[in-house]
């Protein structure tokens, strides 16, 4: 991978790949329509698109992570050009017609070939390839405008440099690791970055209620009014696209390509979770009231005070202090232990490559191989600490998607876990919370899905998995971070080298469901908010809607003067009318975990079955088929209900069909 391209070289490589793909597609389509088949048309076009994706995806990725502003600008331009190209390909009526013809004629050699044709037909229909030329032009233009808005929203959020100045007295109680990254302010006091890497540490440990509220307000104004404007414009464009493509709303359009299919079913699912857990959420907030009143904080406890008083409650009631726990999770040991667990579970071997060839000095590069055969499987990059202008969340990005090559070999995939862990004190390792470790284990699951993808085609690979299932494998793997034997393996005290003692582990597990009401109603709110925006007329006020829904569906009020929708990156990062998928896919995740619970957490045979039945097929088959093969039955709700703390009124099972209906 060439990570040292100059900005002009990056643009040249990007454009050359797009031009080559365009020329190849044109040559393929020069064949008379009556002579086009899967073998001579659709398969070659898939390969030409895949080659263009292979070249441009790592170049486009750099706008999120490169420390060089000029490279980020060139990567952004590459992303714009590539987006325009792939939108045009998606709306091409000749490709759509060739796919339909292939599907109608049948006679496919493999099930994957048939699925490829089916996905091309679905994508072409959803892209407007079947419309007349004027409507297609309008659709193409709107999709490109939408992509520009979404990219600009993400860039603005990554560039956000919001800071808060606090008095010297307000640094008392903050962890030493946290204080080490603060700087003295010219006007007195200390200045700190306000982002995801600082949020929990500050809100859980800051003794000043005023400082907690000020931090919360700044945090919820990241992205600013400009991002609100971008989101409002995106809603208008999405609504126009939905109607042009034959759907009543953008939510209906988006769900047409997902398992859930019906927005009404999704809303019912979310409202069930929220209504059944909202009372518990209020109880969880109320139990902190006496302590808050003693601390001079008004009740009911506000969201910005909840973290602080909940942490005090944990320490007093359960003798569990996050600042004590983090001593057991030094970053280097956590990373190595997670590699070991995944290696044992999935039959893999990880070897670090030094020096790493990457886009920034602190990025680690790791080769992944099959443990039994030694066969190379892919590359994994770890970019885990914040930098100015870097992507601000925690996520895995497929940099090079895998596929079968013409000689029968596979293109080596590359994937990157990009995060923003807290930086350690000078000369000391970064120390993680248990929550940090859970998130890392989750994202590592996505990385392994990219590496272990065995689909013959890019389109039917891991990047094509239905969005409301794509989180399920990684969510399932989060469960490992709550198992005593695995916790002992992943933990090692930074000073003594000892693993977590049994007493601490028992208290951690006892607290797993401490705030299920607050946690799940918050998730349900975000998903309902997303669905509301995309099921309503496009003039809906995104900020007013948040302010109205938030106190109604969660246990908290919203402070004045905040614009939280400006930093809800999922809305402009591919999860629009799709955030519900985090809860929807958890039904599948928790049910898949029951097999590991029954047969062994590190049972190599079960791990191999999971690898072969769920990860390797990727999008060559529908998710319900994969899960049925792994479990030997249709997916059921029971484990999900237990996980979120709902007592089901009656046992229900999801039907084994593509729609994956959930009532």
Structure description:
The protein is an alpha+beta fold. Among the domains are: about 120 residues, Up-down Bundle (Glutathione S-transferase Yfyf (Class Pi), Chain A, domain 2), CATH 1.20.1050.40; about 150 residues, Collagenase (Catalytic Domain), CATH 3.40.390.10. It is about 55% helix and about 5% strand. The protein has 26 helices and eight strands. Strands 4-5-6-8-7 form a five-stranded mixed beta sheet. A three-stranded antiparallel beta sheet has the order 1-3-2, covered by helices on one side. Helix 4 packs antiparallel against helix 5, helix 8 crosses helix 14 and helix 21 runs antiparallel to helix 22. The longest helix has 28 residues.
Provide a compact summary of the structure.
With 663 residues, the chain is α+β, with helices and mostly antiparallel strands. 55% of the residues lie in helices and 6% in strands.
């Amino acid at each position: 991978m060439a990570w040292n391209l100059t900005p002009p070289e990056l643009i040249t490589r990007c454009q050359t790949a797009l031009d080559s793909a365009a020329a190849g597609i044109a040559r393929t389509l020069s064949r008379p329509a009556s002579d086009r088949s899967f073998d001579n048309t659709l398969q070659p076009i898939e390969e030409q698109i895949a080659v263009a994706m292979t070249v441009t995806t790592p170049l486009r990725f750099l706008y999120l992570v490169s420390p060089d502003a000029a490279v980020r600008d060139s990567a952004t331009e590459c992303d714009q050009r590539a987006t325009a190209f792939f939108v045009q390909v998606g709306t091409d009526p000749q490709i759509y017609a060739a796919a339909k013809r292939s599907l109608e004629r049948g006679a496919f050699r493999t099930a994957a070939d048939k699925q490829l044709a089916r996905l091309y037909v679905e994508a072409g229909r959803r892209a407007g390839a079947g419309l007349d030329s004027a409507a297609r032009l309008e659709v193409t233009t709107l999709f490109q405008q939408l992509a520009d808005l979404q990219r600009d929203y993400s860039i603005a959020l990554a560039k956000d440099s919001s800071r808060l100045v606090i008095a010297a007295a307000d640094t008392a109680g903050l962890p030493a690791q946290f204080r080490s990254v603060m700087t003295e302010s010219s006007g007195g006091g200390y200045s700190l970055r306000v982002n995801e890497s600082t949020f929990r540490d500050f809100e859980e440990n800051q003794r000043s209620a005023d400082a907690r509220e000020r931090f919360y307000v700044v945090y919820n104004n990241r992205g600013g009014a400009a991002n609100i404007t971008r989101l409002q414009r995106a809603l208008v464009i999405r609504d126009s696209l939905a109607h042009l493509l034959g759907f009543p709303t953008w939510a209906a359009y988006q769900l047409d390509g997902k398992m859930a299919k019906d927005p009404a079913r999704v809303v019912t699912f979310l409202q069930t979770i929220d209504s059944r857990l909202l009372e518990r959420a209020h109880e969880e907030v109320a139990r902190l009231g006496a302590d808050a009143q003693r601390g001079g904080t008004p009740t009911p406890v506000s969201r910005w005070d909840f973290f602080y008083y909940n942490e005090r409650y944990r320490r007093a009631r359960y003798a569990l202090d996050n600042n004590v726990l983090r001593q057991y999770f030094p970053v280097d040991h956590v990373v190595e232990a997670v590699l070991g667990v995944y290696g044992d579970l999935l039959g893999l071997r990880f070897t670090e490559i030094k020096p790493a060839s990457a886009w920034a000095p602190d990025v680690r590069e790791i080769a992944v191989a099959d443990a039994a055969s030694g066969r190379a499987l892919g590359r994994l990059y770890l970019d885990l600490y914040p930098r100015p202008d870097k992507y601000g969340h925690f996520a895995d990005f497929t940099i090079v998607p895998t596929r079968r090559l013409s000689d029968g070999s596979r293109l080596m995939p590359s994937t990157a876990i990009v995060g923003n862990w807290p930086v350690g004190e000078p000369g000391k390792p970064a120390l993680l919370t248990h929550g940090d470790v859970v998130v890392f284990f989750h994202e590592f699951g996505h990385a392994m899905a990219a590496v272990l993808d065995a689909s013959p085609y890019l389109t039917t690979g891991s990047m094509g998995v239905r969005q409301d299932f794509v989180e399920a494998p990684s969510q399932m793997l989060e469960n490992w971070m709550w198992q005593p034997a695995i916790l002992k393996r992943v933990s090692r005290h930074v000073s003594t080298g000892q693993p977590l003692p049994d007493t601490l582990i028992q208290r951690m597990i006892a607290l797993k469901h401490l705030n299920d009401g607050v946690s799940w109603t918050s998730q349900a709110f975000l998903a309902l908010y997303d669905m509301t925006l995309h099921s309503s007329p496009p003039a809906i006020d995104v900020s007013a809607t948040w302010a109205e829904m938030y106190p109604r569906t969660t246990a908290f009020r919203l402070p004045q003067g905040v614009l939280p929708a400006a930093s809800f990156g999922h809305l402009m990062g591919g999860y629009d009318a799709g955030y519900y998928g985090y809860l929807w896919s958890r039904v599948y995740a928790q049910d898949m975990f029951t097999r590991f619970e029954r047969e062994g957490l590190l049972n190599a045979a079960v791990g191999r079955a999971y690898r072969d039945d769920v990860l390797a097929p990727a999008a060559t088959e529908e998710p319900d088929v994969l899960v049925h093969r792994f479990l030997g039955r249709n997916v059921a709700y029971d484990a999900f209900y237990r996980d979120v703390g709902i007592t089901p009124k009656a046992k229900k099972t999801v039907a084994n069909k593509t729609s994956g209906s959930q009532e």
